[in-house]
Amino acid sequence: MQDTPATRPQAAPWAWAAWSTRARLVAVVLLIDALAALVSCGVIVLNARTAVRVETRASLATVESLVADTIRLSESTPAETLLQTLDLRFKVLRHVRVAVLDNAGERVGRPASTHRTEREAPRWFADLIKPPIERHTLPITVNGQQLGTAQITTQPLDEIDEIWGYARALSLTTAAINVAMLLALYIALGRILAPLRRLGAGLTQLEHHDYTARLEPPGAQELAVIAERFNKVAAALGEVRGANGRLNRQLLTAQDDERRRTALELHDEFGPCLFALEANAASIARIASGPTDPSREKLAARAAEISAIVGQVQTVNRELLNRLRPHGLGQAPLATCLDLLLRGFAQRHPGLAFVGRFDGLARGYGDLVDLTVFRCVQESATNAVRHGAATRVEAEVVEAQGRLAVTIRDNGTGILGTDAPTEHGTGLGLSGMRERVEALGGTFALDNAGPGAIVRIMIPVPPDRGEENNAPSA
Question: What is this structure's pTM?
Fold first, then answer.
């Protein structure tokens, strides 16, 4: 059975992935401190073990020499007095213990107390660094007569106590420094990572479509760059949202205008034509039902009227369909459709010159690109005639370097407004053309400095365009 989000085991709350960045950094520092402490302890133990061994051996050699010198200088001393003197002189020594024995093997004097109350190292520490105990036996001989023996035994606990004191002081000092360092690091990381938390809050605002989010530039240069980029992205998203809102309003307005215009044309054009057709049909019926033979002249006149009305309806129907969807676009080559568009302008405005250069174009570049190019040429020519008072309009569309370059120029007075109204009902306008072109990844520019106006449009050729066969200009 495949695991689902409900059945999949969740990570424990203490898992590394659930930790914050601050906790991770502090944990890494703690781990480094622990490893450093282990290494330091190992070094201390090794050095202490070597130092204790060297110190005890040096003390052992020194005491052996002192005992031998004392015996040699005390040859005239009685035996019992010599043994007691040796016991008293060497009773309290560091790192070694001296036991004076007579010939019977009995210890001379009382042994010194070995109980230690100050800075006594714990047993585990002593076992780590304590070297093997060494014991040397030195005969006590006076005038060739052996009076007893001196047993010299190493005692490393004194040195171990000193090393433990130093190690404990060093450990406490190091621990205090590390605690202070970790506290300072925790506070510093909080201040350093605070901009990242603000960045996360800002991204949450963007996620909830609140594009007014802005970040204050922090002190760190790298984070300041991130904050600056965030503010620019938020501003750009706000501008895009505003542009989308304006485009949606324009789209709704254009749709309403188109519906209103279509309704008016249906009412003003089709209504009277249909009424005239109905009247002519009624007239023909009356003529046919009369008592006399129908008059051929009257029937011919009514037929001519019906034919004229049908022709008018067909003309209005073609204009309406062409406005909703350019006739032949997608079926005929794009260059042919553009030529027919300019010919239509020339027929409606016989006193003006319309020139088109569309050689070298492919048959089509996809429905969206073809319709955008057609509408832009149509809108620019309409603006030049209706609002620029132009007498000559030139349109050129060239494909070069994977782009369609569309240029429409006129010799008029230019366009005063930024979004001239349209009278042919396309609902485009300059802002509409710009939105269409930019939606296809292209660029739109209007040079209105005069004389006349020049519209320059660049549209990338889509990779999945239609046939590549060039169509000659009609």
Answer: 0.47
